[in-house]
Amino acid sequence: MTPKKEDYLKIIFELGGRKKKVSNKQIAVSLNIAAGSVTEMVRKLVREGLVHHEPYAGISLTSNGVRVAEELIRRHRLWETFLVTKLDYPLQDVHEDAEVLEHATSDKLMDHLDKFLGYPKRCPHGGIIPNKNGDYEEDSHDVLGDMPDGASVEVDRFIDNHDLLAYLAGVKLQLGDKITVISHKPFEGPIEIKVEDTGEIMEIGYKAAHYIFVK
């Protein structure tokens, strides 16, 4: 399987494609690619039995697609955890090197890395890490952008996207922050939120708010 196909399976999984339909637009935005490229790749993944595609409804993983995605995500996120916690990589810069390492690592080494790290359940941007048996807790798939004015939520995880993580490092929104949604600006404008612990008011861009998961 090519690295590009693997990237699709991972992002479909991360967007909730194990249990719900994911749109072409969500995949395109998350991978920073053209929507036409998504259409062609999805056709290939359907032919290989890795995803289901319902026109005008969306894309979801097959049982085989879920199994492959879980293994890829375990490898990728264990390396991300190692690079951030042991080698002090900035979170927004860790993805590319983790991508290289996940493809060059034996199952035996992954098991030893998992043990060395203390069997982490979440990576540095909040994503779940399946254990070697494929067990893991459920992710939240509710996004900040869909929360109504007045909602009080906790930041649970971020999509693994370099531009998003760099943006969030700038606004200093962190995992575990308890926030209240103040208002949605019209015409896909920013979302104004209040961080409860500090009282800080900040604006989160419309696009970014749809790749910040809350609970």
Could you characterize what this model shows?
Among the domains are: 3-61, Arc Repressor Mutant, subunit A (Orthogonal Bundle); 142-214, Roll (SH3 type barrels), CATH 2.30.30.90. 42% of the residues lie in helices and 17% in strands. The chain has eight helices and eight strands; from the N terminus they run αααββαααββαβββαβ. The strands form two sheets. Strands 3-8-4-5-6-7 form a six-stranded antiparallel beta sheet. Helix 1 packs across helix 4 (63-87), helix 2 (24-31) packs across helix 3 and helix 4 (63-87) packs across helix 5. The longest helix is centred in the middle third of the chain and has 25 residues, at 63-87. The two termini are 34 Å apart. The model has no long low-confidence stretch (mean pLDDT 93).
